[in-house]
């Protein structure tokens, strides 16, 4: 598949996906949904980490509203069901870490995308907003799930109801992202992080991702059982044997992702 709305590069185990409609702040069209879905599939087959970022001055402005003008508005439940929900599910199910490099404004479903990543870094000048209410919609693409769990219910509710823009610093201090990086260093730092993750025990990272996916809803008993099961699986990997061997041989481990 050749891409028109994203850039895709696979280097050193990292699949870099750049949303590439900068003149629209990388707003989503159905075509972009199809291409991101395809790119995540390629990552699943060929990479050990994903880096997600945006071209130009925006990260992603959510749905492309030029496709929602006038009276010919589709059933939005259908677009959520068919496009946005599968995207968020695919991100959370992908068996490798997704690093988001939030290079600029993340609005609407674009903010949801950042929240659905595993490790989000943001440029100091980046901003986040739950833009939905500004156009008479409700947060979607997982924002009402991730936001209260990351930032707390009081902040999530106010962000959703007011649609106010917050800074990257605020997002970090509220626990919504991993860290803030100077604008000119963001991409290099995010790429370095993704490269690091791509050289780690990929199966363990996938199992850690699953543990945290389920931790958001499990009670302690279920989570303890899950940890047991995941550890059983991790204990059977080649990378675990390598990690222990490297520890005793006092050398850096060479993880192969199996
Ligand atoms: O519809 C469904 O299927 C349901 C799913 C919904 C999911 C959603 O994401 S709903 C929320 C949709 N997104 C928004 O409501 C955000 C709209 N954009 C903004 O509020 C602002 O653009 C920003 C706060 C993101 C950035 O503001 P600013 O001042 O930095 O930039 P700008 O001047 O507003 O935008 C720059 C250009 O991008 C501009 O085009 P122009 O005038 O230079 O030709 C603007 O129209 C365009 N743009 C920005 N966001 C979108 C967009 N074009 C289409 N769709 C957008 N979402």
Q: How large, in whole angstroms, is the Cα Rg?
A: 19 Å
Helical proportion, percent range: 40-55%
Quaternary organization: single chain
Distance between the termini: 28 Å
What percent strand?
Answer: 15-25%
Structural class: alpha/beta
How does the overall form come out from the CA principal axes? Answer: globular
Poorly predicted residue ranges:
none
Give the helix tally.
10
Mean pLDDT: 97
Largest sheet: 6 strands, mixed
The bound ligands are:
ligand T3D
What does this structure look like?
- The chain is α/β, with parallel strands linked by helices and 258 residues long.
- The protein is 47% helix and 16% strand.
- The chain has helices at residues 30-46, 76-93, 109-115, 143-151, 153-162, 168-173, 186-198, 202-215, 220-234, 238-248; strands at residues 6-11, 14-19, 49-54, 58-60, 98-102, 105-107, 119-123, 127-129, 166-167, 179-181.
- The strands form two sheets. Strands 1-2-3-5-7-10 form a six-stranded mixed β-sheet, with helices on both faces. Strands 4-6-8-9 form a four-stranded mixed β-sheet.
- Residues 24-25, 27, 61-66, 68, 76, 79-80, 84, 105, 107-109, 129, 131-132, 134-135, 137, 140 line the site of ligand T3D.
- Ligand T3D binds at residues 24-25, 27, 61-66, 68, 76, 79-80, 84, 105, 107-109, 129, 131-132, 134-135, 137, 140.
